[in-house]
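Section 3.1: Structural characterization of target chains.
Under the original work plan, the team committed to producing a structural model for every single-chain target entering the pipeline before any wet-lab resources were allocated. The record below documents one such target. The sequence was received from the expression subgroup and is listed exactly as submitted; it comprises 350 residues.
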Amino acid sequence: MKAARWYKVRDIRVEEVEEPTVEKGKVKIKVEQTGICGSDLHEYVAGPIFIPVEEPHPISNDIAPIIMGHEFSGQVVEVGEGVTKVEVGDPVVVEPILRCGQCPACKKGKYNLCEQLGFHGLSGGGGGFSEYTVVNEEMVHKMPEGLSFEQGALVEPAAVALHAVRMSKIKPGDKAAVFGTGPIGLLVIEALKAAGASHIYAVEVSKERLEKAKELGATAVINPMEEDPVQKLMELTDGGVDVSFEVTGVPAVLQQSIDSTSFDGETIIVSIWEKEANIRPNNIVLKERNVKGIIAYRDIFPAVMELMKQGYFPAEKLVTKRIQLDDLVEEGFETLIKEKDQVKILVKSE
């Protein structure tokens, strides 16, 4: 079958690989739609981050080159012995977290904090940038009637956004700021709307993405190239937002997102970082602010799909380009680097 494998930075190859076979407790899926994630782009431009290169990943037992793609939907084509969660023909999405099940975090149900955390499509075991993939039954969620495969490919990134909002202290009527309106930032805006935020401010350097943020419901938008975002947010909110979300991974932005909150405010760090970031601790201490990091999601895919049925996280507004697997590098990764008006690019596996 055809699949896209990461070899090294700026070296992803679409090539023929052996089609995976189903085993006990596993599900074989014909991949329909896969999104290119910001994490995928990080791996392409500056990896490895999650990709195992020096030794095999302890759960997948794979080492680079590995098949990429972890935001995907598809159809069940075969189930292994003992599988009861889904049947052949079911449309599904995959929750791509690899977890050990034995570490303290896993034993407490917080499997996204697993000591050996990995991702199907980043850490080995197969991935969505292929024609077929095989995953453990626990990773599969049947899609409700009425959701398209395109919408299904957005469940994974929307889960990141919804988990970030759920882990925050946001309450109905609160004010929030979202620093960075790439795909995850835009999905955070959607999640904040679902949570009842009264005002949502978007901070972004791309004018095209600011327009998209307004289209998705941002109360006001701020371009930090044109005005000081902290000062502007203080003016708009009479003292700062209740919660800010850092979704850029740009070191200077982290301090801005902290400083934009009110006394006793909270900053949620959603980004995966390529380099270190400096902060001013006294700006946290003297205002009794909180700073919290989140990674991925847990126990949330069904809730995301229910919100999608209500119209949240709409594919028609978020998908800006559709390509074939053969064109993944030039029309996908390179396009995302060059064209800042792109939001979500979906890849058809055939």
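The mean pLDDT is 97.
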